[in-house]
UniProtKB/TrEMBL annotation:
<comment type="function">
    <text>Catalyzes the hydrolysis of glucose from the disaccharide unit linked to hydroxylysine residues of collagen and collagen-like proteins.</text>
</comment>
<feature type="domain" description="Glycoside hydrolase family 65 C-terminal">
    <location>
        <begin position="598"/>
        <end position="644"/>
    </location>
</feature>
<dbReference type="Pfam" id="PF03632">
    <property type="entry name" value="Glyco_hydro_65m"/>
</dbReference>
<keyword id="KW-0378">Hydrolase</keyword>
<feature type="domain" description="Glycoside hydrolase family 65 central catalytic">
    <location>
        <begin position="281"/>
        <end position="487"/>
    </location>
</feature>
<protein>
    <recommendedName>
        <fullName>Protein-glucosylgalactosylhydroxylysine glucosidase</fullName>
        <ecNumber>3.2.1.107</ecNumber>
    </recommendedName>
</protein>
<dbReference type="GO" id="GO:0005975">
    <property type="term" value="P:carbohydrate metabolic process"/>
</dbReference>
<dbReference type="Pfam" id="PF03633">
    <property type="entry name" value="Glyco_hydro_65C"/>
</dbReference>
<dbReference type="InterPro" id="IPR005194">
    <property type="entry name" value="Glyco_hydro_65_C"/>
</dbReference>
<dbReference type="GO" id="GO:0005829">
    <property type="term" value="C:cytosol"/>
</dbReference>
<keyword id="KW-0326">Glycosidase</keyword>
<dbReference type="InterPro" id="IPR012341">
    <property type="entry name" value="6hp_glycosidase-like_sf"/>
</dbReference>
<dbReference type="InterPro" id="IPR005195">
    <property type="entry name" value="Glyco_hydro_65_M"/>
</dbReference>
<dbReference type="InterPro" id="IPR008928">
    <property type="entry name" value="6-hairpin_glycosidase_sf"/>
</dbReference>
<dbReference type="GO" id="GO:0047402">
    <property type="term" value="F:protein-glucosylgalactosylhydroxylysine glucosidase activity"/>
</dbReference>
<comment type="similarity">
    <text>Belongs to the glycosyl hydrolase 65 family.</text>
</comment>
Length: 671
């Protein structure tokens, strides 16, 4: 099947086109051989109908050989180069179609067709290009403009704004005209034809990007510039594992799809538009939750991005800061103070979930958003985000929301949060969801700590309410009921209470942690979403129950499709496809579960535990307080080396502290 690790090759495509690989960067995404692409943040439709606007894609084409005999074909996704290619091998020649979304020039996508003669013949060789491209869209009012530097030009706006009277984003697209066939002349041995597509929110940016692409093509370095910036990202986020091949290949796939979604290192200035469960290539109306952003981004994908690439993590947080006004309106509409982040978010932060119950009740998402800010602050100590870039206003608004959403119970002498839907969506209108209340407590504690660090006076009620909020606990059975009145054995849709241990790190004994895992593992729906099992795996790893962890992690593999390692949300193939949420959970097992990494206010804890058939884990670049750490863990030892320290702002000096109490200072270049 494959020909090398991280390179996925097949001789036939999967029958279901949803399982084709995606080529994506921070601004543009498409699925190979599909007639549409999407641009980040470009949604059409009002409120619950808002969905990613379909942009017609010049990349939607397929090579065909005119020969009567069907030639040998292969399809390859190379996660090291961030390219997809289709090859036709005939007795006398080979033709290759290669496409990619340029990683650093995010407004550009490109493809090339190469025909190479393999024998001494001198007859012309022709390859047909079967294009699906039609320059029209159900979501945009498109108009043709004048050609520009040999490119065709269309532009237009989305048809319906997300909020009445709100903006309708514009799309400007330039593309190299595509002939119906290409011919290698009799005297030629090899020839390559290059095609560019530039998409942007303004005519100026589209033209600038197209021109930049043309001049790189003229210098012969367009592909090279993409490869260079993609390789730098893959290197910086390299996670190497010595273990079962299926696990290693899954890891390469997850890193490819998740890193495709983040902003490039060299253009962090452009606003980032968040990551939906199925990424930018999906999100047409009726698909992948319409391309909306959920807690999937903040809870499931974010922690991995934070450890490996904090600049991209910051961009994700800035998306939430940009949508704060919409979140304030959501809170207002529910009669609350502060800001309530939407269950489903698009461009404005207003609730765009098509079904009212989730937006009204699944309120834990507001705490999930703040938890990402807290992890970011603990890992970077970046006060600028909070002082100058709007972070503090968001922290304060979330704390105000939780205070106004809880009520005092005279009877229990505790604060209650009533009428919610927990992460387990099989239950609604419950009181005191353990997860929701625990995340609210974390929000309030973080807001208090943050105020202290910024020397801002904070209301005393934040700390008071955090102490007095009810997190249900059964004294007799020594476990956390999912909500008031939960009875053991009741079916649960997905990971819920087990999230108290990780990522929430809610204080509890090992006995209680074990009881929670034992209580919920057998009643969690086996058909539930893919990220669930990874959190059970992390829990069992914490308790050093390696076999039980492995059997949970193995369940993920039924959600990974062949040959391109595209995840499906549910093991029966339903739900979102290219399910980055499941990939995020899977990566957390490796980055936090196997290593035991835990982000706290004062340190980065580590306590590795491996399943038996894994012998070594090497994470090339963990970012912590301005330092880059190379961490290598084997059965015998843990090596940590500071490979880089930032100068401005200066990095914090680190030391490793062992349980024995020994301290080892970590300097740059010293293991």
């Amino acid at each position: 099947m494959g020909d090398g690790e991280g390179v996925f090759t097949a001789t036939a495509l999967p029958g279901d086109p949803r399982l084709l690989p995606t080529v994506t960067n921070a601004f543009l995404g498409t699925r190979v051989f599909r007639d549409i692409l999407h641009a980040a943040g470009v949604y059409s439709g009002a409120a619950g109908d808002t969905h990613r606007a379909d942009v017609p894609s010049p990349l939607g084409l397929r090579m065909a050989a005119p020969a009567a005999r069907s030639p040998a074909q292969s399809f390859t996704l190379d996660t090291w180069t961030g390219t997809f290619s289709h090859t036709i091998q005939s007795p006398g020649y080979v033709a290759t179609h290669q496409l990619y979304a340029h990683h650093s020039l995010v407004h550009l996508m490109a493809f090339s067709i190469t025909i190479q003669r393999l024998d001494g013949s001198t007859h012309p060789i022709t390859v047909q290009l079967q294009s699906l491209f039609v320059p029209q869209s159900q979501d945009l009012d498109l108009t043709s403009g004048p050609d520009f530097q040999g490119a065709h030009y269309i532009y237009g706006q989305t048809l319906v704004p997300e909020v009445e009277g709100g903006p309708r984003p514009a799309v400007h697209m330039l593309w190299t005209p595509i002939p119906q066939s290409l011919t290698l002349a009799g005297e030629e041995r090899e020839r390559r034809w290059q095609f560019l597509t530039a998409v942007a929110g303004s005519e100026q940016e589209a033209k600038r990007s197209y021109s930049a692409g043309l001049s790189l093509l003229a210098a012969g370095s367009l592909l090279r510039s993409h490869l260079r910036s993609w390789a730098a990202l893959r290197r910086g986020c390299s996670v190497q594992l010595d273990g079962p091949p299926a696990l290693r290949q899954a890891l390469h796939g997850c890193l490819y799809y998740l890193l495709s979604a983040v902003p490039p290192r060299d253009s962090p200035a452009a606003p980032f538009h968040g990551i939906s469960p199925g990424g930018l290539s999906n999100g047409t109306r009726g698909e992948d939750y319409w391309g909306h952003v959920f807690w999937d981004q903040d809870t499931w994908m974010f922690p991995n991005i934070l450890l490996l690439y904090p600049e991209a993590a910051r961009a994700i947080l800035q998306y939430r800061i940009r949508t704060l006004e919409g979140a304030r309106r959501n809170a207002q509409e529910q009669g609350c103070e502060g800001a309530k982040f939407p269950w489903e978010s698009a461009a404005t932060g207003r609730e765009v979930c098509p079904e009212e119950i989730y937006g009204a009740q699944e309120i834990h998402v507001t705490g999930d958003v703040l938890m990402a800010f807290e992890q970011y602050y603990c890992t970077t100590q970046d006060q600028k985000l909070f002082q100058e870039d709007g972070g503090w206003e968001l922290v304060e608004a979330v704390a105000q929301y939780w205070c106004s959403r809880m009520v005092w119970s005279e009877e229990e002498q505790l604060y209650h949060i009533r009428g919610v839907m927990p992460p387990d969506e099989y239950h609604s209108q419950v009181d005191n969801s353990a997860y929701t209340n625990a995340v609210a407590r974390r929000s309030l504690n973080f807001a208090t700590d943050m105020a202290r660090d910024l020397l801002i006076p904070a209301p005393e009620e934040w700390e008071h309410r955090a102490r007095r909020i009810k997190v249900p606990f059964d004294e007799e059975r020594k476990y956390h009921p999912e909500y008031d009145g939960y009875s053991p054995g009741e079916p649960v849709k997905q990971a819920d209470v087990v999230l108290l241990g990780f990522p929430l790190m809610h204080p509890m004994s090992a006995e209680v942690r074990r009881n929670d895992l034992e209580m919920y593992e057998p009643v969690t729906d086996p058909a539930g979403p893919a990220m669930t099992w990874s959190m059970f795996a992390v829990g069992w790893l914490e308790l050093k129950e390696v076999q039980r962890a492995w059997s949970q992690l193995e369940k993920c593999f039924s959600n990974i499709t062949e040959p391109f390692k595209v995840w499906v949300e549910n093991s029966d193939g339903s739900g979102a496809v290219n399910f980055l949420t499941g990939m995020g959970g899977f990566l957390q097992v490796i980055l936090f579960g196997f290593t035991g990494f835990r982000i706290t206010r004062s340190s980065l804890l580590f306590d590795p535990t491996f399943p038996e058939d894994i012998t070594k884990l090497k994470i090339c670049s963990i970012s912590y307080l301005g330092n880059k750490l190379e961490v290598t863990i084997t059965r015998e030892e843990i090596r940590m080396e500071v490979t880089e320290t930032s100068q401005a702002p200066p990095a914090f000096p680190l030391e490793a502290v062992l349980e024995s109490g020994q301290h080892f200072p970590l300097w740059e270049g010293m293991a």
